[in-house]
Design brief:
With 208 residues, the chain is of the alpha+beta class. The chain has helices spanning 4-31, 128-134, and strands at residues 43-45, 51-54, 61-64, 74-81, 88-97, 106-110, 113-118, 121-125, 137-138, 148-155, 158-163, 166-172, 182-189, 195-205. It is globular.
């Protein structure tokens, strides 16, 4: 029969082996890539006072508006892609608001032309005059406090919007294709710091 000390040594060895397996598997998990996670180093604040805070590994980051009120009675924050985007590309972002100002806009811009999203509606924005004419369109299933996947494609003068994998609308530029940057933005109430959690964010080149 195995002695008591033998059993104790067996238990200790199994305990040590278990810890080694856990440590090794944890190390492997820590080194695993996060292909869909946004990389904060690829983006920079585009408006003075904008906050850009990383949330752990593979957790994305938080964008916060500057704590000052602009002329329209809202706070504003935006980030932009550091690198120059390709001629034709797709922006994918998965996000949700962390602050209660859900009637304010979340915004995705491709070369200076973009889409504005608020609770139950969206609108393509090219110029103030164009937006005043075209205005908002209904999007009943959308609320900024819930996580949604947004995809905005830019191919020449054509923009296409997908929400949660569903084609919502397309828009053709009313002027010559502008030069600009890829940006994400958000508005908040007055001088409060509105916040949005970005879980996934990527810019992918499209074939011509």
């Amino acid at each position: 029969m195995r002695s008591v000390s033998g059993y104790l040594r067996l238990i200790v060895n199994l305990f040590i082996i278990g810890h080694l397996i856990t440590a090794l598997s944890g190390s492997a998990a820590a080194e695993a890539p996060c292909p869909k996670a946004p990389k904060a180093t690829e983006w920079t604040a585009d408006y003075a006072g904008t906050g850009l805070f990383r949330i752990g590994r593979c957790g994305g980051f938080v964008i916060a508006t500057a704590g000052n009120s602009l002329g329209g009675g809202f706070s504003w924050g935006s980030i932009r892609l550091r690198d120059k985007p390709p001629a034709h590309y797709r922006i994918d972002v998965r996000w949700r608001r962390l602050s209660a100002d859900s009637d304010r806009t979340l915004e995705v811009f491709a070369h200076g032309v973009g889409v504005l999203l608020a609770d139950g509606k969206y609108g393509f924005y090219e110029t103030d005059a164009q937006f005043a004419t075209d205005g908002w369109k209904r999007l009943p299933s959308y609320t900024t406090l819930r996580e949604h996947a947004i995809a905005l494609e830019r191919k020449g003068a054509q923009l296409t919007l997908h929400v949660d994998g569903r084609l919502v609308a397309s828009y053709t530029l009313k002027r010559a294709a502008s030069k600009g940057e890829v940006r994400l933005g958000l508005k908040g109430y007055g001088a409060t710091r509105a916040r949005v959690l970005v879980r996934e964010l990527s810019v992918t080149e499209l074939e011509q």
